[in-house]
Specification:
191 residues; 10 helices; mainly alpha; 0% strand
Amino acid sequence: MPKVSEDHLLARRRQILDGARRCFAEFGYEGATVRRLEDATALSRGAIFHHFKDKDGLFLALAQEDATRMADVAAEQGLVQVMRDMLAQPDQFDWLATRVEISRRLRTDPAFAKEWSRRGEELTEATVARLERQKEAGRLRDDLPTDVLVGYLDLVLDGLIARIASGHGGENLSAVLDLVEESVRAQRTSD
């Protein structure tokens, strides 16, 4: 039997993740049946579940991938930039439905919540590190603990995702993000 190359395995995994992302975005977690996953990926259930233990494992892999992508931007440019990117390039964020599904499952599925807590810290850690660097540089308000600022920004992010995912983007969201950004910056004093 011929040996399958690592590149082929990675390409197949990518094909599965991309198809599954579209399927979860269109049908939600519950509606993304194995048959729909097969259709979306153009692969058999055997091929899909050769790479992922089960549907939960596939969903968690997507969620982790999204968290990593957001964490990379948050670490370099801040969490508000992640939100600005969502507004500027909505076609690049078909994972919004995944994020909404994560929120729902965190409330309703204790096993998922436990697994996600192990994997979902990357974005929080990147945000905390960035905020701490900004505080040290004097660019961020220092009258509030960092965890309060993180909670505030997470709340805004969740609200923005819910708004976009529900189809109610709105023209003034960029101005709202300007306000959010201004609210966490250090206040300049005039002499």
